[in-house]
Amino acid sequence: MNVHLKKWVPQPSLLSDSRLKAFVTHGGLGSTMEVAYSGKPALMVPVFGDQPHNAYMLARHGGAIAYDKFHLKDGRKLTTVMKDLVSNPKYETNAKKLQEVLFNQPIDPKLNLINHIEFAIEFPNLRSQVPEISKVGLIAHYYLDVIGFLGLVGFIGLYLFFLIIRRFCVRVVLRKIKNE
């Protein structure tokens, strides 16, 4: 197994190279889409944001392995996972299957985008095309009212819990003093 470390390479060119057996990526949306369309197995090491979702999505299709960033220190585990990714044909088979599905979608994504843009141009103020969420205020949009209410209920609950515990402890101490 040969590994080449580079600061930057043109990713689409790299993914289209027939010598590439597996690709290691953080799982950003761009990398995820390029890996999926390339039909190459991938080791996905998500860091934050949408990356865990992207990594597990490709792993569910069977053409990638989602690897926990906290296990990068474990060289043996990483080597085992990489060897499995490169030597087990199921990853390449599943990656190729996903590639085939993507290239043979019943609705061409580019054509679909063009159709939606043309529709929006023809009917610019169509009320049914405006999402309902855009009509609510910032507080309701982010559920700040619900979060505030639940936070208040939680705070009151904790306060009452500590009052009860305090009263119980005071009674125990008073009984102890009274018995002495």
Q: Outline of this structure?
A:
60% of the residues lie in helices and 5% in strands. The chain has helices spanning 11-16, 29-38, 51-60, 75-87, 89-103, 109-122, 138-141, 144-179, and strands at residues 23-25, 42-44, 64-66. One of its GO terms (cellular component) is membrane.
Structure, described:
Pfam families: UDPGT. The chain crosses the membrane at residues 142-165. GO terms for molecular function: glucuronosyltransferase activity. InterPro entries: UDP-glycosyltransferase, UDP_glucos_trans. The protein folds into two domains: 11-106, Rossmann fold (3-Layer(aba) Sandwich), CATH 3.40.50; 136-179. It has helices at residues 11-16, 29-38, 51-60, 75-87, 89-103, 109-122, 138-141, 144-179, and strands spanning 23-25, 42-44, 64-66. 16% of the residues are buried. Strand 1, helix 2 and strand 2 (42-44) form a beta-alpha-beta unit. It has eight helices and three strands. The chain has 180 residues and is mainly alpha-helical. The protein is 60% helix and 5% strand.
Structural class call reads: mainly alpha
Reading off the top of the CATH hierarchy, the class of the largest domain is best stated as Alpha Beta
Q: Largest beta sheet: what is the strand line-up?
A: 1-2-3
CATH architecture term of the largest domain? 3-Layer(aba) Sandwich
Report the order of strands and helices.
HEHEHEHHHHH
Counting DSSP H or I runs of 4 or more residues, the number of helices is 8
The helix content, as a percent range, equals 55-70%
Number of E strands: 3
What form results from the Cα inertia axes?
flat
Sheet with the most strands, sense and barrel status = 3 strands, parallel
Number of domains: 2
Query: Would you tell me which CATH topology of the largest domain applies?
Result: Rossmann fold
